[in-house]
Amino acid sequence: MAVEIRELECFLVLAEELHFGRTAERLYLSQSRVSQLLQSLERRIGGPLFERTSRRVALTPLGQNFLTSLRPAYAALERVVTNAREFATQVKGRLQIGFQGTATDEILAAVSVFQSQNPNCLIGTCELPLNDPFGGLRRGAVDAAVVLLPVAEDDLVLGPVFSRQPQTLTVSTRHPLAGRESLDIEDLADAVLIAVSEPAPGYWRQAQAPTQTPSGALIHRGPEVATLQEGLSLIAADRGGMLLCRPTAENNRRADIVNIPLTGVPDSALGLVWRRGEDTPALQAFAVHLKGA
Fold first, then answer.
1. What CA–CA distances, in Å, run from 113 to 99, 154, 278?
2. HTH lysR-type domain: from which residue to which, for each copy (predicted)?
3. What pLDDT, in 10s, does the model give residues 115-161?
4. Of 62, 154, 172, 193, which one has the greatest count of Cβ atoms within 10 A?
């Protein structure tokens, strides 16, 4: 006859308390239900486990022997259930994260912490083209993407925003503005900015290479590029400048270009983006790590 887990729990608690009232309180049962469970267990075993009088409750020799054998077995069963529960709730599978340009320290730190805390989920990263921040997501090539803001896509969700950084104007050493220690956006009137090509949406391309200053002065749109390295090459060839966040500018220093601090423009920022309705446990866990990186 199969043994009921509740009967074993009742026996173990009663063996500790040696009191039906306290046992009932611990198990959130009535005293009569505790007696029923114990009697059922004793019938299964074939002998009394406790001596019960009006004054005391004590284990019988059979009960003591049963307790000695049951305790380690029950503890092992609890560990099996706990391990199974942890495994079931643990993040598992594969998570692919896309990024534009360079994987920042925040991204790499979040990837490292995520992998160490979620060994059953393999996380990978891949570079996305500068001119196609959302295409990899929509094709299913990545599960989430770290992209430059702004993001205004109906089918995508913008998660944590991080790495807010001041912007610079990056130009060749021969550019008329190259000798300046700092610039305001109004100083870019009649300047040429290298633009990002399609398929990036228009509002996003405009944010990376504005076509006018806040006062309405014209900023000329120069050649279009698909990658950051293409842009840096055109900058070095004196075909125009680019707005880059300070860390990106510093990580791509060259002898033939200079980075000039720029005011009057919003700080650059990165955001984690994923497909609407597809925020899996793995993705939620990574978003938490990225937010705290």
1. 17, 31, 22
2. 3-60
3. 998 888 999 999 999 999 999 999 999 999 999 999 999 999 999 99
4. 193
Match domain 5-89 to its CATH number in 3.40.50.2000, 1.10.10.10, 2.40.160.40, 1.10.730.10. Answer: 1.10.10.10
Residues contacting residue 200 through CB under 8 Å, at least 6 positions apart: 130, 131, 132, 133
Cβ-count burial 41-53 (b if 16+ within 10 Å, e if not): bbeeeeeebbeee
- Hunting for tokens 């706990």 — which residue is that? 82
Peptide bond into 199 cis (omega under 30): yes
Do the Cβ atoms of 166 and 246 come closer than 8 Å? yes
Q: How far apart are CA 186 and CA 216, in angstroms?
A: 9
C-alpha to C-alpha distances, 134 to 99, 199, 209, 275, nearest whole angstrom: 10, 9, 18, 10
Q: Copy the structure tokens of residue 206.
A: 């405009």
